[in-house]
Structures are given as structure tokens and as C-alpha cells.
Predict the structure.
Amino acid sequence: MAKAIGLSVALFALWLALSGFFKPFLLLLGVLSCALTLYLAFRMKLLDDEAVPIQLRLTLLLYWGWLGGEIFKSAVAVSKVILARDMPLHQQLIAVPAPQKTDMGHVIFANSITLTPGTVTVETRPGIFLIHALTEEASAMSGFAEMGRRVAEIETR
Amino acid sequence: MDPTLDLVVDIASGISFAIGGIFLLIGALGMIRLPDVWARIHAAGIIDTIGAELIVFGMILQAGLSQASIKLVLIGLFLFVTSPTATHAVANASFTAGLRPLDLRKNQASDVLGEESKP
């Protein structure tokens, strides 16, 4: 039930943001299309943690801010490698443990690693990821442990 | 709007555009300079995370409090979620196809995948 309400609120907010019209007839069309989408999502059994991730903590927003800082730092590090005369690459494929309990937590962790320039998630297996790192600096295990801990904090209420 | 505030917003968005543009240029240079697909993925990563997001952020500052800026926020959010998915798809496809990074310093692929890790 909470999932259905969450999805309809999100859908209608998206509809308002994209349309920008507040005439009663158009609002009615928006409500009807949201209701139809909700019905279809219910029929397709899509109202789960994956499609409507309202089980995540709101500190997700703070985490995004922290992640933005990390992305900036590692973008600068990779830029230095690109601009350096001899390009000091130390390419490596490393195994990184993923301590999250849910699939959503794993997805957020893997996507965060990929978003950070210098590291890319190549393969995933339950509880462990294969990461490609461009440099020695990018492959520091403490950085992954810190990020994994922060994701584990936001994955469930 | 207050003219001083206008000026501050203009300067802030200018800085955002400038830094974003520099990162886009560096990313494009990296796409050419780096030796193989694995290293080039990271150059593309600079472009589609920090470069694109800073440009979108500058545009949000220019748009001010309007419907356009809400749409720009949505664009930024979708880029933030979809670009790592695309990057992962490329990396995973090249791994599955048997490509391995040049001059690999450390390889723990077998720790994760066991026998599957052989190219």
C-alpha cells in the first residue's frame, strides 16, 4: 500500500513538473494517466523495492552530496594522469567485498564505484565485485570500505 | 531580481561552465591519449559524470527558479543514474568478450569468478 501511494505521488509530481499547466481539465488527464500507470504497475507486480525504492533512508541525499565530492576528487586525479607526460597507468582488476544486504544496496554501491572516475565495476557476484582501477591511488581498499559502509547505512530504514 | 544577486549567479554559473568545459576537454583528450578500451572508459567517465553534471548545474543557475530548472534537475538525475549503467555495460561486455587491460599489474578476477575469469 505504501508502495502504491509512493509511486502515485512520484508519478504525479513528475507529471506536474513536466507539464507545468494547472488547468482543471489537464490536471484531470494527469490524474487519470497516473492512475492507469499505477494499475498497470500493480498488474505487472512492479510495486516492489526495486521499482519504488521508498525503503531507502532519506540520508541518501546526503550520501549523494558526499559522492559528488568524491567524484570531483577522483576526476581531478584521473585528469592529472591524462595530462601527465608519461601517463602513469597501473591498470588492475581487483576484488572488492560488497557488505550490503539488499540488491538495491548492491546496485547503489556498484553504480557509485562506476560513477567515480578511475574505477569501474566489471562483474558482480553476491557479496563481491570485480573492479577495474586505472591507477594505484584509485584502487585503495580504504576508499571502497568507506563507500561500502555509507551505502550499507542508507539501504534500509 | 536584485542586480548584485544576478551578477553573483552569473559568475557562479560561468565558473561552473568553465570547470565543466575543462573537464570535457580533458576527457576528450584522454579518449585519444589512453592506450586501450579499459583506460578510455575512465576518460569517458570524467565526461559523463563531472563534465556533464557541471554543465547542467550551470544551466540550472542560469534558468533560476522556473519549470526549466526542475527539468534540468531531472536531466541531471537521470544522467547520474543511467551513465554508470551504460559504462558498466561496456566494461562488462569487453570483459566477457575476452579483452584484458594492457600491462595488468594485479589481477584478482579468479577470486570473484573462479574458472569463468579465463578469457
